[in-house]
Design goal:
single chain; about 210 residues; alpha+beta; Glutaredoxin; 8 strands; globular; disordered N terminus
Length: about 210
């Protein structure tokens, strides 16, 4: 089994049938791809949850919306990526494709969103091709933000990577009110992403 297969199929290490959302985040940290990666990232609950800055988005089908509109009323797992990336982004794409399968016909409020940090080159066609490469799902969309608003979004997520890759491989979890509630460590297992989204959907807004 190669590295990518081990990342995508690795099971969660903690069962969460009736645990709190806070414990869900802890499980995500324990199940991370590599323990040393977490040291570079700010991971954990966001208390209180925070609304993101205004962000215009162009989706993979070329339609226009805002991040706030896309998040409202649903629970969302968001990742940063760019389609020409050959390092972490293919692994991130595989993780979200596997997460979409694990969500299956579960809570319809759960969705996945891949947001490009290269809005100049990541056209809707490029984003659509990226999704198709890994396996499209109604639960999973890709988008590019307005270039002028990208830095504010990246700063809000605290996703700048000090290494050679310009972004982390974290998942950012948003609640039904469109607020950032949790930051994972790098490469949380697909099973854990699905569990955390289901926990958020069940918990509901406060």
């Amino acid at each position: 089994m190669d590295l990518l297969d081990r990342i995508v199929t690795r099971p969660a290490h903690i069962s969460l049938p009736r645990r709190s959302l806070l414990l869900a985040l802890g499980a995500s940290a324990v199940g991370s791809f590599s323990p040393h990666l977490a040291a570079h990232n700010e991971a954990g609950p966001v208390d209180p949850p925070q609304l993101p800055p205004p962000s215009k988005l162009t989706l993979d089908d070329a339609s226009s919306t805002t991040l706030q509109s896309l998040l409202k009323g649903r629970v969302t797992g968001l990742q940063l990526m760019f389609t020409s990336c050959q390092a972490t982004c293919p692994i991130q794409g595989a993780l979200f494709a596997e997460t979409a399968k694990k969500l299956g016909d579960g809570n319809p409020a759960a969705q996945l969103l891949s947001v490009s940090i290269d809005p100049e080159r990541d056209t809707p066609a490029a984003l659509a091709a990226w999704l198709k490469r890994f396996g499209q799902s109604p639960r999973w969309r890709a988008a590019r933000p307005d270039k002028a608003q990208l830095d504010a979004l990246v700063s809000f997520l605290k996703s700048k990577n000090p290494g050679p890759d310009p972004h982390t491989a974290q998942v950012y979890y948003f609640d039904r009110k469109g607020r950032l509630a949790l930051r994972s460590v790098d490469f949380p297992p697909a099973t854990q992403i699905a569990i955390t989204l289901e926990q958020l959907a069940t918990k509901g807004p406060k």
